[in-house]
## 1
Amino acid sequence: MKRILAAILTVCIAGLALGGCAGTPAEKTASAGTQSGAEVVSKAEGNKKLTVGFAQIGQESGWRDAETASIQFYAGQHVDTIDFKFADAQQKQENQIKAIKSFIEMGVDVIGLAPVVETGWDAVFTEAKDAGIPIVLLDRRAKVSDDLYATFIGSDFITEGQNAADELAKLLNNKGNVVELEGTVGASAANDRKKGFDDQLAAKYPDMKILASQTGDFTRAKGKEVMESFLKTYGNQINAVYAHNDDMMLGAIEAMKEAGMKPGKDIKTVSCDGVKGIFQAMVDGEANVTVECNPLLGPQFFETCQKLKDGETVEKWIKSDESVFRADTAAKDLPTRVY
Amino acid sequence: MEKIRKLSKYQGFWPVVVLLAILLINGIISGGAFFEIKIVDAHLYGRLIDILRNGSKLMLLATGMTFVLATGGTDISVGSVMAISGAIACSIVDGRILPGAGQNVQAAILLALLGGMLCGAWNGFLVSKIKIQPIVATMILMVAGRGIAQLITDGKIVTVNSDSYYFINGYILGLPFPLFIVLFVVALVLLFTKRTAFGLFLESTGCNPVASHFAGINVNSVKWMVYTFCGVTAAVAGLIESAGIKGADCNNAGLFMELDAILAVAIGGTSLSGGRFSVPASLAGALIIQSITTSVYAMGVAPEITAVVKAVIVICICLFQSAEFKDKMRKRFSGHKQERTAKPA
């Protein structure tokens, strides 16, 4: 028994060690980023550099990793003009609040924040305001009064839904039956992508009908299961699928193939986000269109920060640069996708 | 009538009745379309097949969970173990880890099963040797498991491209392959519990571990074994899940499946405090849960109220199963002699 025990423990420890190895590169880059940032500060004291503190949520998804990478990359490229401080909150609001407080003490020019939750920010935002430091919200909103933050940079999910409707209408020549795979019930991305899509269909494309709509919780497995059911209920009546994210669509594509249909041909597809997987599917001819939800906010973020520092006024909602990608250019786009 | 009364003594009787009732109600509502089975691409295709195929993961989990619950324990880490096994297998097939294995599918499957076994053994070790309460002991892996899976896949959804790996969720003889896996595991398990003394040891451990110990049963090793087995079944379920979506989704694979598995066993009539158990009854429980999900989709229930509809059905089933409730209803409707009248609407 003891021997078995020893064996198990060894394997566990080995596993941990391996895991540790896998984990380090990311940490290294992160700490390297902050260190070099700190050195630059001491050298650049009194200089006219743009000092920005950014409190990120933490590692959460490929999408967020891409956002972090984009911001750090931009800051790294502009070391001469930007002094960047990065804080990883590990999914905890208190860590983000601590980070903001320390940014205020350091006296940065602008504070960036991707709030992990919507509420509970009033006190710390007021502190920042009293210190005269503008706050830029990134990709998620906070429930505070408008005067407490400078601007919000992020996607317009309603526009994404509208774009999806336009693309689908183009694929179907303004006529046909659609089934909809919704995101997690209550999530803002799901609500708005549904609203934008449904309203646009009702307003502009009277010959397009939504046969059914069901939640797939933004996951591949659920997207597949729901699509299986749609196919059984409506069968050949379905002309197209609209999914609130690409992963659900990837699941739905599997369901269509198992039902003996050709996704992308028999049933047209439009989904949101623009992850690598859907580009691969488009190259393979199994998907048609993806409406991008861009995490690469680095350039826009720092441009906005510079404007705020220079005292220029910025809009309260800066919409992120987003586009629509179609199957015909997918082969060319795939290698350039980073998330 | 006598025959039915005799049959109803079996633990699996009521769960099967409920399952048939759910299917029948669906059939009536859909006007028979629910039972329609076609042949598409040389395999059977229909809602009943969907229930069997999508329910196979839960059936496997419920099999492992039945034993754990029979010893009076619980294992809430199975969902995370599913994520780990999917992550290991997909990462190897993708060549992301262990490039030495040469993206070999067999090696990937074996190592994933081994991973699940280790996770189960770890749970068993904590419960039987360190004597941590089962729910706490397995919570450790429930929380840490997804982290481990994320470390393996580097926090990304690993998509695999291998027809031989997809086969885990494919078809054989026109029937879904996962179904054969379930049949194999269940046959093995029934053989082991009915033909050897192990089943008796298990019940005895669950009923009274102290007395069992003095009767000469190695209670600790029984516990260790069932947790390890539960880990393996979770790993198999994880393989089926990842083959189904052709990738490892560490955040969502098997999320909250542990609760479904426990519910399946409970609906099957196995007491959560240990003792008597029945694997076939748990399988019926698992199929009940899957058919509820499938029927909610089939009926086109609005997404906002899906969860509530499911909860109401589960409450009805639990009431229907409760001897106490049936007794009370019988007293209330004492004019009727048949016990079936006690069935809640």
## 2
Amino acid sequence: MTRLSAALAAFLWTACAGVSAAQEESQAGPVPVTGNAPIFCTVGSLQGGGEVFDLGVLVDLSTGLLLPSLSAPPKTLTGAFCNTGSMIAISATPISAQTLTGTPSGGYSNEIDFTATASGWTQAPASFSTATGATAQSSQTRGDAFSGDIVVDIGTFSTSGGSALRLVADPVYQGSVTVTLTIAN
Amino acid sequence: MTLRTAVLSAAAMLAASGAASAQSTQAFNVVGTIPSICAMEEPTLADGSLINFRGLNGTTLEVDQLTDPSTLTTRAASASVSFAAVCSFPHNLVVESESNGLWRNAGSGAPSGFADGVPYLAQLAWGPVNGNLVADASARRANQVTIGVDEAVSGEIVVDLEIQAGASNLRSNAPLIAGTYQDTLRITVEPQ
């Protein structure tokens, strides 16, 4: 052992044990080498960068009723990974009128329910309906480490309060979807 | 173990205990828009509402017998006409009588003692509002009423038309001169 090595080892022991025991000539070791790989999850990066599902005009302009053909392209989160068992959870809030407040008049609604799904991570997609709130399907777990893409989609739109209700005019209707990856306990 | 190894190991432990790396989230917005729209369908007659009206022919509502055959005075008539409609924003309901009463088409004026105009009343009901248009046949001109509606409404615009017995633009129970009497009633829902 060189003089430099001995000095380093002595310094380390001092730090660990808090004992002042430096000696001029001593043999250090064996010293166990340990390290931890941190447990880690990331949802990856959003392909295309757009975090907005833009549905455009929400109603049939001749009837004022919710368009039955409403849709938006799905979003893909690429490069998602968890280096241990994980849970994927999805939640959403209804698409509601942002400018108008208060209770809509009779025959009208100001809110649209929908279902958001996150697939690709677990065998069964995680799904969340704003009409029913969180259910067992809203979070799914997998026991092993995994990396892959997560596809987030929205669909099954319905007028809150019933399909016979029309929707009040408002330039901005907005809701949200949140996807979360968490290490499994 | 070298000092360098020990320091790196400690840093890794700190990272593992932090919450940020154990959870990762992506949020999305879902947006859309609903433009201001008003729509109205063709008129329909309320069941059993016709008195002395023949019924709707397209958008024409025809009085069966406008005059009493023995006195030539106006016979009473009434009908209730509905328009299925929707307006998704605060709006105005405008009802306009083109001639302010039923007027004889041909000729101008009427011989002394005869009437050539028949007044009527249109009563309106639409969502939270009601209104009247009195087409009194006092003069042949447009007459309209505008009713503000401060909320979105869907349902039916109901127009109850009523011609009273003996009504005329001359005096009560004046005889009507022969001819075809008509008026055009326009119902509009429009932005305020």
